[in-house]
TrEMBL record, chains A, B:
It comes from Halanaerobacter jeridensis. This is Molybdopterin molybdenumtransferase. One of its GO terms (biological process) is Mo-molybdopterin cofactor biosynthetic process. Catalyzes the insertion of molybdate into adenylated molybdopterin with the concomitant release of AMP. GO terms for molecular function: metal ion binding; molybdopterin molybdotransferase activity. Coiled coil: none annotated.
Amino acid sequence: MERNIYLDNIAVEDAQDKWYDNLEIETAVETIDVREARGRITAQAIRSNLSAPHYHASAMDGIAVVAADTAGASEKNPISLEQGTDYQMIDTGEAVPDKFNAVIMIEDVNQVAEDRVEIEVGATPWQNIRTVGESLVQGELILPTNHKLTAHDIGLVLEGGVTEIEVYHRPVVEIIPTGTELVEPGTSLEPGEIIEYNSHVLCNLAEQWGGRGVKTEIIADDYELIKTQVEQAVAEKDLVVITAGSSAGREDYTAQIVDDLGEVLVHGVSMKPGGPVVLGTIRNTPVIGVPGYPVAAALTFRLFVRPLLYQLAGDEVPEVKKVTAKSAAKVVSKLGAREYVRVKLTQLEGEQRAVPLARASGQMGSLVEADGLMAISEFSEGVTRGAEMEVELLNEGMHPADTLVMSGSNDLTLDIVKNELAQKKVDFITKSTGSLGGLTALKRKEAHLAGAHLLDTETGEYNHAYVEKHLPNRDTYLVNLVYRQQGLMLRKEDADRLQKIKDLATSDLLFINRQRGAGTRVLFDYKLEEAGINPQEINGYDRVEYTHMTLAAAIANGGADVGLGVLAAAQAFDLEFIPVAEERYDLIIPKKYENDKRIQKLLEVIRSQQFKEEVLSLSGYRTAKTGQVMEND
Amino acid sequence: MERNIYLDNIAVEDAQDKWYDNLEIETAVETIDVREARGRITAQAIRSNLSAPHYHASAMDGIAVVAADTAGASEKNPISLEQGTDYQMIDTGEAVPDKFNAVIMIEDVNQVAEDRVEIEVGATPWQNIRTVGESLVQGELILPTNHKLTAHDIGLVLEGGVTEIEVYHRPVVEIIPTGTELVEPGTSLEPGEIIEYNSHVLCNLAEQWGGRGVKTEIIADDYELIKTQVEQAVAEKDLVVITAGSSAGREDYTAQIVDDLGEVLVHGVSMKPGGPVVLGTIRNTPVIGVPGYPVAAALTFRLFVRPLLYQLAGDEVPEVKKVTAKSAAKVVSKLGAREYVRVKLTQLEGEQRAVPLARASGQMGSLVEADGLMAISEFSEGVTRGAEMEVELLNEGMHPADTLVMSGSNDLTLDIVKNELAQKKVDFITKSTGSLGGLTALKRKEAHLAGAHLLDTETGEYNHAYVEKHLPNRDTYLVNLVYRQQGLMLRKEDADRLQKIKDLATSDLLFINRQRGAGTRVLFDYKLEEAGINPQEINGYDRVEYTHMTLAAAIANGGADVGLGVLAAAQAFDLEFIPVAEERYDLIIPKKYENDKRIQKLLEVIRSQQFKEEVLSLSGYRTAKTGQVMEND
């Protein structure tokens, strides 16, 4: 077991300094057609090759005249002119013949005969003529060096008789995905295989930041194969990125290869996600090894490649926009590593708050959903709820006032709500915290609303008793989302191994439970009690999943054999479903948000016929009371 | 002379309403590879085809264990495990074998023998394991409909096993440049020929606004040829633009062709530039005829095509950003047409001001330089200096605090200053108003500084007397820019027709003068007086150009035969140069701007060795006092 498990742990800024200070950033220049140059940056000042107009041009449709011939013309005393001698017809852009020095616009000309006109206003010399050089003079500066070309610029450069210009080369980034377990998108998967998509994310980020991204084939975890590819890449490209293999595992070769071929400047940065990053240089080409976890790959690429790409392209590095927001929740973080928590910004409790999203480095969804990054210092063990934090924006098009945050129980129909709300320009963020978790989030003012299906086992009523207990002094109302079937889910081949809850105690099927506080768990415990079973008789009672869907997926996958969940989840994974109960799922909405436009749009959605139809197209749902305010009986 | 000279004159908003209300905007959908979809907009919700991970995956490099086997491990009481039976080596991403249910990270494992390890901390069930569906669950909503894809999104979609997605088709705009006088860029020009660049500006604007622009060959002013192209275009493309021919001239066919093939909705809008625009529809395809003047073409395209492109692409029309600024100068405008004055924004007199740029529709440079458009109402005859105006931004990257405005005499070395200041992130706008014009602009506080070479004919001194007269109560200082040669310029073939100023009275050469208030004109008048010549003896004394370069261009072109100007201008146009005098060109800077960072950078530039070298590489300049403060003698 040979492992090089020692990584540096230097601060992000120190790593950046070490990296940028040791790179020789050289911008290259290329000649391109200006017609293809929008967004490119001039490497040389552009001067006009000619004057425009290059002749005296009529600025109007009309007649060319000699100004002196028209002096004194008036309404009472029009002057008559003869074609050929006194005037000539002329269109916009045509050269004014030498003998004339003014143009009278056609609207001011009275045609009195085929070859004769009258005018009532005299012309001043050079009126309505664009004289030579009016727009551009030969040799004049059109655009300075280091200027980013716009569509309008392209016109002026062409007008100046220039078609080819010198611009900075767009840096080409080669991205080398490594990993024996990786397969290309579109391949059907075997266990242990992972779809390789980091390279596509990084290619697209490179393009977004002014570079060009080129990915290679996936390369297996083989020292020689990777090394050969890296050698070729550094000879041809401006920047080389190796994804995965940057840490200190048995098959992590990046650091060693960079060290063999060039110099490792940094291996390991005190950041999360993304710590085990390799920053190096091989024959003056910057080479970076990023971790394989997608969030880590994207964030290290952002910190260590984004500024570099702009510099290589001769561009200014755009300032990263920052806003301040109060953390919507407490976040505990490890000392010794700066954590970049992905957050969604929302207007909550009358102020801008940052809602922390999933923190695992494998959760690409957290980056997709995020508006920005909230950095928790390496010298801190986290932030308290309400702490004022700086948020670095990832998404400048964010709109906190149109972001609605729900916490609580997960339900499949929330995806329909999310999609419909997106059409109404509301970003709907659902945090799967379980029914009780949702009430707690409301209590802590971490969300705008909660979703719950909590059975009061004494009354058989749903939710009201829990709301009264957990939110005693809060004015809330309950709006029904759906009624839904809960049942035992198991693989089709196991269908005859179980008929009812009671059988769980005697079967050897491996159960999988929902987390504490989940309404489904409350229901399960209630049903166990009803059946007179001690939870400890259930094999797997302590193992939990957090949503219906992950639970169903685990069963479909063989990670467990049986669990309680909704029919739609069972159907999504083609599982057997044994109905256990129908339950009520409500939204709990604080009264103070009654007039909030986001909540109003949410209610519009769930009260629409379309929503109900979409819900019913999933199985196991009833919408008889969907959208209704549920009074306490 | 058959002319259809009647145009409508309807308000911009009415024209937009008539246009958008009568178009049937249909978004088309296409299936593309998600890897190529950054910036595209989903036409359908994207749901995951699979769960990710699709198996229980190790989240760490380490060992897979059974959690229960590790219970009670501590530093004092380590637990020993045997390879194969108690643990198995596992790397990040590998499938956890069924028999194990936890992973201990390698850093927490002590290797004690080849096949034996010790651990000092127990594992909890499912620790360091990414369970099935942790990132994505099969069937889960990944992205809603009408969502613009980011680089991060692409990763998540690929992770969900989706490679092809439905997005809105990018609308294709065909741009048909018409005009017998037009030639393609890169062609050498004959008098009357014009470089066709509108189509490239519009193509690039179309791309910027989410469409695709395709230009056809230039088509001559021939009714049938244009009609054939339009017929073909409407059958294939989403939008058709005909440039030029939209007015009411002899060879303006656009309106008639649209009327023949479909319906003209609007012909003529009360706006400047851009009034004679044609808005129509042919077989459900929107067709627009834009005027040939480049500013008019770009502005009408902006008003009538930009919103349409976004809508056809299924995108939201981005809000046009607006700022308020005080007009830096009085602008007189015609009643009855809304004028879109291009303005540069600058911080002047402690507030944001809009500096009106060239107003002619042929001056593409005004759009290149502009930060925004200041609309002057069709019901107003203009705006006063200081009027608070709304400015619609063209350039969101504008930076008024780094924009420096100079007014006054034109000099070729100002192009060098402009280029060098651009490297220091200062936008240097020079308005050629002549030496006296510059002093007037300073008096009116329309500029930060002025440039002048005004000879006091009584003392032979430059500038001081004029500054004292025109800016009596202003504290200013003079900084020398250059000394320069002024001389008579004429075509080489005319070289022997003139030796000195006095000869002008007797020669039959056609003179061209500079405008009133230009220092060169003051110098010329002084030299005439010295030579005892009455200005009226000079053939062409009343004809004027506004800069050295346009004057030299006019002579080179045969528009005139002789004029007074600087050596560098003569050389740029290969003209004969007969020296008349050396004169001093100074910058006049109000003391209050002494510490302004833009002025400081300007002084840094002109005091640099590099600037002096570049100036001397032009001919006819001396830099002995360049950058020095000039005291009154």
